[in-house]
Amino acid sequence: TKREEDIARSYAMIGRFCRRKHKTKEGLCPQCLAVYEYVAERRRRCPFGDGKPACGRCPHPCYSPAMRAFMKKVMIANIPYMLRHPVRVIGKRLQGGR
Q1: Which of 13, 16, 80, 85 has the most CB atoms less than 10 A away?
Q2: In angstroms, rounded to a whole number, what is the distance separating the alpha carbons of residues 22 and 20?
Q3: pLDDT tens figures, 16-47
Q4: Long-range Cβ pairs for the range 17-24 (8 Å, 24+)
Q5: Average pLDDT, the chain
Q6: Considering the entire predicted model, what is its pTM?
């Protein structure tokens, strides 16, 4: 489902951030693991389900201000990856997915 894809995408983004910023070799550091668990739980509880809009456009924000700020850092840190691998990043949209 789109919900599980979003959770998997979040794990990949947090993982890249953790490897770069916290120098982890495998998995996530305790801080990033806590963030991932928070993100996954919030996404699973989203009242919009698979019809969820992008977080910036969502009328019902799920994240606390501190988590929103942390995820903003994660997303900014992932910009180089997104620029190097645009097909992986937007491939689902090109294939008709959301």
Answers
A1: 13
A2: 6
A3: 999 999 999 888 999 999 999 999 999 999 98
A4: 17/73, 17/74, 17/77, 17/78, 20/77, 21/77
A5: 86
A6: 0.81
